[in-house]
Task: inverse folding
């Protein structure tokens, strides 16, 4: 198969790549670019382990053909922290035990970043559960995940108020 | 995934021409197509990528209608202020469909083209018999596990359920699919399986959905989408209903009623018998419950899906009564 040239900006770094058109964004990240923080769970869009942000929106990278996303800005779990300083969402997942085995956690965190950016959930646990229903946790750490999202939202809102003031 | 060539369409006309070639398929959000390519159901020779086309993702809402571009994302339409206020059933159907990630990827045009979730259809390696996949090969679902299969609109060839939510709301409000210059009512766009279950949509090779138009109406403005499912979120409907209602000036007598069912039929299912039985009547719970039974007139089950015949009328009745409460 002919490889096709694409450009992707991943975690702020520009990549010029030649890809087989069948390669998903997920496989490109993991197999070609060694960004293995993004996990392959079901590979069918059912579990959310592969969630990344594309142009600021959360998507399932297992259902996205890399070639179709030529020109996109991609954020993966590797690009979330600022150096050694964890993002408030990451810190909140640790503080509230929002995981057990950790396999789904990168997807949960990326999905949470998308959810917070969408501004739909507010401080309603039910709406957070609904907003994160595309991310399955087989250890069922859901209680901790919801607490983590609530706290992360508060921390980020506080930081926003400080910036505004 | 089988090898395919990839072509990025530069215009709608170029996309149509490319899609007319044998083995070509249009690629939009990819949430159905890539999934089906992975399970060996879809085997495109050429993928014609239309996601880079400009001007097909707009949402225009006026007194007369809503016109939604084929490439508008499900999540964007669900959250659109004018869709929420003038077509709440459409917004609610989208919110209750899929997951946030998939709603950010999937387009409105692609949503109409999604295929059934029949597990036999989706598993060619283990179930070679499927009339939808291979016409004439038989139906593995009939006599199989049928909990998620249709009870309305079935045939001896196929009992696969139509899985979507959006189109159920669209069919209730007489929406129209724009295929470039030509237009097809949503109700006619979806085909009954009959003897040709492989043909699901009234669209020919070389045609492409460009927009969906929903006429504005008082019943669309006062509407809801009620979806009952095995788990509370990210699940297909066990039974669902899109309902819209318009009252006379007295606030009690039903002037217009729209009812469509999801999760129970082989296509988005308009329940005109329920509408006709209640139009002109005063909204009253016993009458609503009696009329709602007409929603499943002619239904036949295949064992495990029998519950849908009891469930669907209750979902319809609850949705109608909920709309009545807000009088």
Result:
């Amino acid at each position: 198969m002919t490889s096709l040239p694409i450009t992707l900006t991943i975690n702020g770094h520009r990549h010029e790549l030649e890809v087989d058109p069948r390669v998903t964004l997920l496989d490109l990240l993991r197999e070609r670019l060694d960004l293995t923080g993004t996990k392959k769970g079901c590979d069918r869009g059912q579990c959310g382990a592969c969630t990344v942000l594309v142009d600021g929106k959360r998507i399932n990278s297992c259902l996205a053909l890399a070639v179709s996303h030529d020109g996109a800005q991609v954020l993966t779990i590797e690009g979330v922290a600022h150096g050694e300083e964890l993002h408030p969402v990451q810190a909140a997942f640790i503080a509230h035990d929002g995981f057990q085995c950790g396999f789904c956690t990168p997807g949960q965190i990326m999905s949470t970043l998308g959810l917070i950016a969408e501004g739909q959930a507010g401080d309603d646990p039910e709406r957070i559960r609904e907003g994160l229903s595309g991310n399955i946790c087989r250890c069922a750490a859901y209680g901790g995940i919801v607490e983590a999202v609530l706290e992360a939202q508060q921390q980020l809102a506080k930081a926003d108020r400080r910036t505004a003031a | 995934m089988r090898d395919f060539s990839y072509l990025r369409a530069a215009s709608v006309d170029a996309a149509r021409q490319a899609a007319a070639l044998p083995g070509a398929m249009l690629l939009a959000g990819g949430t159905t197509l890539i999934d089906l390519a992975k399970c060996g159901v879809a085997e495109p020779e050429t993928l014609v990528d239309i996601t880079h086309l400009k001007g097909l993702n707009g949402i225009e809402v006026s007194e007369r209608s809503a016109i939604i571009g084929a490439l508008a994302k499900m999540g964007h339409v669900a959250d659109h202020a004018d869709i929420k206020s003038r077509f709440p059933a459409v917004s609610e159907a989208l919110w209750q469909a899929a997951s946030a990630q998939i709603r950010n990827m999937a387009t409105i045009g692609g949503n109409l083209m999604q295929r059934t979730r029949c597990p036999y259809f989706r598993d060619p390696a283990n179930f070679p018999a499927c009339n939808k996949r291979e016409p004439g090969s038989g139906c593995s679902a009939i006599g199989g596990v049928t909990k998620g299969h249709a009870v309305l609109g079935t045939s001896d060839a196929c009992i696969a359920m139509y899985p979507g939510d959006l189109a159920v709301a669209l069919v209730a409000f007489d929406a129209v699919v724009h295929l470039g210059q030509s237009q097809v009512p949503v109700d006619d766009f979806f085909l009954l399986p009959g003897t040709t279950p492989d043909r699901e949509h009234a669209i020919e090779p070389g045609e492409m959905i460009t927009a969906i138009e929903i006429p504005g109406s008082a019943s669309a403005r006062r509407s809801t989408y009620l979806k009952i499912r095995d788990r509370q979120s990210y699940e297909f409907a066990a039974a669902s209903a899109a309902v819209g209602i318009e009252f006379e000036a007295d606030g009690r007598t039903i002037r217009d009623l729209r009812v469509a069912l999801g999760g129970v039929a082989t296509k988005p299912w308009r329940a005109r018998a329920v509408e006709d039985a209640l139009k002109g009547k005063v909204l009253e719970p016993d009458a609503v419950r009696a009329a709602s039974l007409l929603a499943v007139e002619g239904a036949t089950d295949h064992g495990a899906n029998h519950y849908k015949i009891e469930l669907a009328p209750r979902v319809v009745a609850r949705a109608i009564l909920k709309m009545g409460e807000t009088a």
Remarks:
- DSSP finds 13 helices and twelve strands in chain B.
- The first helix of chain B runs from residue 12 to 19.
